[in-house]
Amino acid sequence: MKWLNLGDEINLMAFIAAIVILSLTAFVVNLYTKQMRNKTPKGKLLDENWDGIGEFANNIPFGWGICFCFVILWGFWYIFVGYPLKSFSQIGQYNQEVAKYNAKYEEKWKNLSQNQLVQMGESMFLVQCSQCHGITADGMSGKAQNLTAWGKEEGIIYTINHGSKGLLGPDSEMPSMPSMGVELSADDARAVSAYIMADISEVKHTKYPADVAKGKEVYNTAGCNSCHGDDGKGMDGVAADLSSYGTSKFLAVVLKNGKKGLIGRMPSFDHANFNEVQIKALSAYIESLEPQN
């Protein structure tokens, strides 16, 4: 019988306990049935009575005393020996099996090529992200963030012109530069994005290398450094750390905390328990996407 799996310690202990309880129950029922038939009450009654019903001043039955002592001894054994030293549980066994599987998984996938990371990330994206961001990751006409531009120069340009909300918390917001009276031309915005990607971000690469020097100048004169700092690492609760922009670290923060942005609310994916390799894979896939308007 599949349900009677005595190879499992919990099932075995429950089976033995059931047999013991049934045996004791049968013994006690049989004993008291015989006593009720054959024995007559005897002993000294207590002085108190209720409507003529008295109570014998007998000692505790021997069997009861044995049972009480046994339960006390069993309790001490369970607390000091049986439970903490053995410490077996099905949840613990499950966690050990999961840890063993994860270790095997990490060993197998720790040296993936960039192409393999992209393929893994695409599979994850289609299962976990495409419902909101669309199978092409373009955000489905503004219903969610356009991830084809996210983590790239185009994402920085979009943020300059439209602002950002919810990255550092539900109430955090970066206004658009035009709303703060700073009008940047398309060339200046592109130059700033090139400077951030090439010099500030750990990506250390940009599609517009010729604009990096100009971007540094605009970054400082337009006031970007007043919030994000000269090194771009931002200030806690005020401005985001741009040094992680476009990296898996940046993605990990969003996945953990979620984001209540200008478009809508992205829930936290902390419950998914993505490991480091999976986050790198998802980041690699997003990075591989060709920007779409």
Task: For the structure shown, list the relevant keywords.
6 strands; mainly alpha; two-stranded antiparallel sheet; 11 helices; single chain; about 290 residues
Structure description:
It is found in: Cell inner membrane. This is Cytochrome c oxidase subunit III. InterPro entries: CcoP_N, CcoP_N_sf, Cyt_c-like_dom, Cyt_c-like_dom_sf, Cyt_c_oxidase_cbb3_su3, Cytochrome_c_Oxidase_Subunit. By secondary structure, the chain is mainly α. It has a domain at 114-288. Helix content is 52%, strand content 6%. It has 11 helices and 6 strands. The chain has helices spanning 9-38, 62-82, 90-109, 114-128, 130-133, 153-162, 186-200, 212-221, 224-228, 248-257, 276-288; strands spanning 45-50, 53-56, 164-165, 173-174, 259-260, 265-266. The strands form 3 sheets. A two-stranded antiparallel sheet has the order 1-2. The chain is elongated. The mean pLDDT is 87.
